[in-house]
Please model this.
Amino acid sequence: MNDWTIGRQGGPGRRKRMGSGAVCAAAWVAAATIAPESCAADPPQPYGPTPTERQLRWHEMEFYGFLHFGVNTFTDREWGYGDEDPAVFHPTAFDADQIVTVARAAGMRGLILTAKHHDGFCLWPSAYTEHSVKRSHWRDGKGDVVREISEACRRHGLKFGVYLSPWDRNHPEYGRPAYLEYYRNQLRELLTGYGELFAVWFDGANGGDGYYGGARETRRIDNRTYYDWPRTWELVRSLQPMACMFSDAGPDFRWIGNERGIAGDPCWATLDLTKPGRYPGGSAEGLPNGERPGTAWVPAECDVSIRPGWFYHPAEDERVKSPEQLLEIYYASVGRGCCLNLNIPPDRRGRIHENDIRALMAFRRTLDATFATNRAAGAQVRASAVRGPEPAYAPGNLLDGRRDTFWCAPDEEFTPWVEFRFGGPVRFNVVELREYLPSGQRTEAVALDCWEGDQWKEFARATSIGNRRLIRLPQAVESDRVRLRVTRAAACPALSEFGLYLEPGK
Ligand code: FUL
Model:
């Protein structure tokens, strides 16, 4: 058993000396690249699939927004047929700075814009079609929503991503090989014209009835073969190597399997990509929970709209989700290791509606108040087992506010525990855990105890951890000692953060 150490407290930007004394500079260092002499001695062997650098950056975002905006905003529809007159697109007071500053104030770290939805109308003046903003009267046909939003994102420090619907109910060639060339040409415009993209979102809804250049018929395609996805993915990789691609089955992040923003529990970051149906628009089976051990790291995104619909509808102004509903979604998405993609649809002015802003700001205030202070910081820490040599994998790493340092057990130790002693009673109702992702998802179940009277009392259990696990207790706990027990693991656990927080009013 190890001696007590005082939990280290460090800011996110602080660099820490590790092992032999060399400095680990990168925010994330893949386990495989940690050379023993430069960082820490004897790192744990990664377990199962592990994330790429681009996926690690995506994990760090945790919360970003979706912007569904287009002809549907003005026609009061969710799925445009494809025969809309571009003139219907006429935002009266479009303001990219308002949209982006609202997102930023809500705590979002990026925005994904529907550059083209199923109706085929393009929010940028594509050279390959007339069915776009250039045929609208907005900004005299000289406007470019993709440009304005992407530039506002950069001005305000948010990342930017695009949604380009594969299904196009306007294009005459949809369903035939010629459409694929059109689709990739459009994608190339978006990949090369608007700076760095953090995400490219490939929707799974495909085929059906539509305008199709006047044919007005039903066109069915084979999701598995028609789009030749590997070629499209290759285009994204070559032009935007750090962009993460979304679809039902990845390759970089997956759909959670519902549009309520709620992850399964457990929710593993891994999937078995050899199973049938693992392609965009394929099967949703296994997506809410992920699969163990899986063949690839394909973590989940929970997408949900702040309103009943994805696009703005005046009739839904009073049906904006409440701050409490948004918090529940946050704990069931971000708190289960996923990223939350919350849709905030611009209205007919081209701004975020006041009711949505009110809910977002109240939601943010609660989150800020909750996570302002880690009540476990500064605790004395000891663990049942620590991977040697000290201090590279010491349990104090759990309290240093950094994801790139971690407490790790020796290879043969799968169920270690760590105990935190505070100077006096500490009150909390949220427990936070993070796993060191470059070593894979190793921990399968944990239990938490508090010291009551003269014995330990279990107050919570959880399964998968991954990027972030938040355990929100119905009732606050008060104790001067807390113990975290790993009760099941696939390999010696590697946990990077531990926190205790209190929601206002608890
Ligand atoms: C779905 C689409 O059909 C919806 O309109 C929306 O864009 C949602 C995010 O994805 O598949």
User: Anything to note?
Assistant: Residues 354-371 form the longest helix (18 residues). Residues 5-46+374-501 form a domain with the Jelly Rolls fold (CATH 2.60.120.260). The first strand starts at residue 5 and ends at 6. Residues 421 and 481 are 5 Å apart (CA to CA).
